[in-house]
Amino acid sequence: MKYNRKTANDLTRYTGVNDGRIRYAANINIPLGKSHPKEKYEIDDRFKKHASAYCTPDFFSKDLKLNPEQKELFLEFCDADPRSKTLLEHPNVLATMDFLYSKNEEFKKLKP
Question: How large a percentage of the chain has pLDDT more than 70?
């Protein structure tokens, strides 16, 4: 039998030498922490896409008289209304524009 460095350093061959390992130990994984995955919150931006698709940027700036900075804030304000969800179920250009006009009046009243 030929001895080399690898076999000489292998301590498992010699039963009388203890290297700190347990030979026939069971490998058990105990999860620490929560067992269920974290809930993922998805942002529902369907109304923003719907309003941007049906209405041109000129509609927001000229008809509703909103600045480009106010456009995103206005769309979030409209998205908070439960009526916007019904517009997504039954998309209609005129109903969407009417909804945006009515929400624009409320938005202008809230703005200082």
Answer: 79
